[in-house]
Amino acid sequence: MADIDLVKTLATTVAAGTPVLYATLGEILTERSGVLNLGLEGMLLVGGMGGFAATTATGNVFIGVLVSLAAGAALALIHAFFTCSIGVNQVVSGLSLTLVGTGVASYFGKSLVGQAAKDSFQSLKIPVLSDLPVLGPILFSQNLFVYFSFLLVPALFFFIYRTRPGLNLRAVGESPATADAQGISVAGTRYLYTIAGGALVGMGGAAISLGSNPNWQENITAGRGWIAVGLVIFALWNPWRALVGAYLFGGMEAFQFSLQVAGVPVSSYFLRMLPYLLTIAALVFTQWRLKDQTGRASSAAPSGLGLFYLRRERG
Amino acid sequence: MKKSRSISYVSALAGLLMALSLLLMACGDNTATTVPATTAAAAATTVAGTTVAATTAAGVTVTSTTVAGVAATTVASTAATSGEKFKVAFVYVGPIGDGGWTFAHEQARLKLVKALPNVEATYIESVEETPSVAEPVINELAQKGNKIIFTTSFGYMDPTINVAKKFPNVYFEHATGYKTAANVAVYQVRQYQPRYLAGIVAGKMTKSNIIGYVAAFPIPEVVGGIDAFTLGVRSVNPNAKVKVVWTNTWYDPGLEKTAAKSLLDAGADILAQHQDTPSTLQAAQEAGKYAFGNDSIMESYAPKAHLASPYWDWSLYYIDRVKAAMAGTWKTGSYFGGFKEGAVDLSPLNAAVPDDVKKLVDDKKAAMKAGTFDVYTGPIKDQTGAVKVAQGASLSDEQIVSIDYFVEGVDGTIPK
């Protein structure tokens, strides 16, 4: 591995992992409330297209990001309605959401194909910090999406594990009946975090269409939503691990090319397979390890995940 | 109580959706009238679509508007016609909004309709290349009374041949394949010709003598393109090297960008590409370097970085063939259009390219148009230095479409 520029490759790793990180964080928030939303790919696309369209119309990227958040949230609201109010199977609703989201993004995006971004988030060197050796170029010479994710990960972790609303969120996901008995609105909580999660996923779309690839093309995400679905499990529903997972994915993407450039004889087909392989390996590993600790198989998933909750009427 | 609550949910939802769509509509005028059917069908086929999405989950990238959704497109546009027009159909492998391969075919279809007002040309987009998906689609188009059907991707080869057997009175045209029949012709363009010209520009413009090439799949079309590009580079700059990385995908904007960055990190100051997206150009623009587009003119995505794009114009061939079909003079054949036929070109060069380089490119272009210059003319050596094409000899068309080695000057390997 003589000719690999490690620092540059790691900087590319962080950039490549960031959109997936947003999607993963959004889904963690949603799944923590007990709602499985497999519509990530659709929300990413709608967010990416909405953000790009709004930026094209207004010339302002920040309005673009707001529209991305709103678009992801709006799509998630549909999912929340079907799964929390009507009780539609969450898997079916989520998969439908992917199809709807892809269709909506393609339809409204038709006229945007071929247009250059009016404005986009370019990389922005943070003074002082970007001069640090090694860490400077890797972490502090990126775009705003990357910097915001640095704040978002600890903030989400703190929120989920150290605050009362976070406790309520986990309670609804683990045992909706208990939470309900405590006076927490199960449907309300699930609505809230499904929508909030959707907004974050929408922002992941913006991180692509306004950040890493500032233009609109159909299916611009190329399956990253599905990677994020896997990473949520890899992360055991923990934001810090999500960061690790997303960067592992980004690293697989970045290193397959630096290895090729360095002339290391590794099959590119094999390298391309690695992100998927790694997710499976992580699944097996975490499953096996948790079994070790508790003495029985446990998936670490919120116990109420995927289940519709309806309070039994009395009398 | 309960009822009224769910009603208020529904109206809130409907309101929000409408607000969202109005907002989005305001942001861009919508061009195609057939598209609502696509979206509606995509939404309606959610249950049937489960299998599609499941394949996606397994890692295969599939656009959502696959057959079920898209079949509606044809129905919608067919219903809107008077019925007396000459019916032509196109089968596309990607979405028309891919900005690359399918986009170029779609532009040609639009030109065809404009040139021949008596023609009604419909299309089906994002049709998977799997025979079980593609064959029924082509079959249905033939049944619907289309007189000539263009299938625009390599994977449609056998499905096209199979359907053609059942419809001897319908003409079929298959792009990039090699199987013909009495009513099946094949067509392809000489992509390598403008790539050679791009190589000349790159060879002249590079300062580091390292040129990067983001390549999709190790198939002859791509390998031969890299060879032609490198021959162009080395014709003006024998010290330059062309570094190749493989992405193993036609279409993944994020991954292509990462690939392009890795080449820039390795010292490349000019990037070329054989991919369907402008990501390589964007990576170059961010780094203040130059790059080439591919398939369509990609200048708008990165005007500063864009040196030129090799692109293909399928419209001349389409107009020709549809005219022949209408006149009853259509004959099978295999078309391999280049500069001579006006089927390929290199877009206007970046203003930063010096005039002497422009002239060099123009001269070679003129020579290819006149047929006095051939890209694959000997002596051509492969990477090991072995002579592959002797002095004075040149590759035949059969050899060009099956080329499987890198020429001298390429820094990279072809995965086996």
Descriptive keywords:
heterodimer, A: 315 residues, mainly alpha, ABC transporter involved in vitamin B12 uptake, BtuC, 70% helix, B: 416 residues, alpha/beta, Rossmann fold, 6-stranded parallel beta sheet
Descriptive notes:
- The complex is a heterodimer of chains A (315) and B (416).
- With 315 residues, chain A is mainly α.
- Chain A has helices at 6-32, 40-58, 61-86, 90-109, 135-139, 144-162, 164-174, 176-181, 186-212, 224-234, 239-261, 268-294.
- Chain A is globular, with a radius of gyration of 20 Å.
- Chain A starts with 5 loop residues before the first helix and ends in a 21-residue tail after the last helix.
- In chain A, 56% of the residues are buried.
- Chain B has 14 helices and 16 strands.
- Chain B is globular and about 60 Å long.
- By secondary structure, chain B is an alpha/beta fold.
- The model of chain B is unreliable at 1-16 and 18-82 (pLDDT under 50).
- Classes of the chains: A mainly alpha (315), B alpha/beta (416).
- Chains A and B meet through helix 1, helix 2, helix 3, helix 4 and helix 10 of A and helix 1, helix 2, helix 3, strand 7 and helix 10 of B.
Computed over alpha carbons, the radius of gyration of chain A is 20 Å
CATH structural fold name of the domain at 195-309 and 350-411 in chain B: Rossmann fold
Number of helices of chain B: 14
What is the helix content of chain B?
Answer: 40-55%
SSE map:
The complex is a heterodimer of chains A (315) and B (416).
Chain A: H1 6-32, H2 40-58, H3 61-86, H4 90-109, H5 135-139, H6 144-162, H7 164-174, H8 176-181, H9 186-212, H10 224-234, H11 239-261, H12 268-294
Chain B: H1 2-27, H2 35-44, H3 50-57, H4 67-79, E1 86-91, H5 101-115, E2 119-124, H6 131-143, E3 148-151, H7 157-166, E4 171-175, E5 184-189, H8 192-205, E6 210-215, H9 220-236, E7 241-246, H10 253-265, E8 270-274, H11 279-286, E9 290-292, E10 306-308, E11 310-312, H12 315-327, E12 334-337, E13 344-346, H13 355-370, E14 380-381, E15 387-389, H14 397-400, E16 410-411
Parallel strand pairs in B: 1-2, 1-3, 3-4, 4-5, 5-12, 6-7, 6-8, 7-16, 8-9, 9-10
Antiparallel strand pairs in B: 11-13, 14-15
Helix pairs in contact in B: 2-4, 5-12, 6-7, 8-9, 8-13, 10-11
